[in-house]
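Pipeline run #58 for the internal structure catalog. This entry was flagged by the ingest filter as a single-chain record with no existing model, so it goes straight to prediction. Upstream metadata was stripped on purpose; only the residue string is passed forward. Reviewer on rotation: M.T. Logging verbosity set to normal.
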Amino acid sequence: ISLPLDAHIPEEYVSNLNTRLSLYHRLARVEHIEEVGDITREFQDRFGPLPDPVGNLLYIVKIKVLAIGARVSSISTQGRQIVIKPHAGHAPLKIRGARGVMSKYLDSAVRIGPTQVKLDTRLLGERWKEVLEEILGANCA
């Protein structure tokens, strides 16, 4: 997963290197959305309010879990586009009912093709994160 986000645990937030490494390892093993919420609360309890890079890191972990459930092989950034590709041999991604934020952007900022879905971050602005999450959630098995 490659997204246009600054995502890391700053040294100023978690000063101990071993603790930071342990947290990264724990994040790499997350398999369920609920775990992201648990880890978020733990970060806040232990280290205080989340700085943006940590919030972005937790968002990416959530997207990784959703992508696995949606049978997505890759999510990448190409210029101003977020490109979502399903695993080869799987059906194209579907936008079931196009509810929520996503419904406002179909055919303009959200392009659905047979082998990929593209999100135009220029047209979506900060909403691209919410739209990406909706698309993956709508395709989870």
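catalog note: The longest strand covers residues 72-78.
catalog note: Residues 26 and 37 are 13 Å apart (CA to CA).
status: ready for reviewer M.T.
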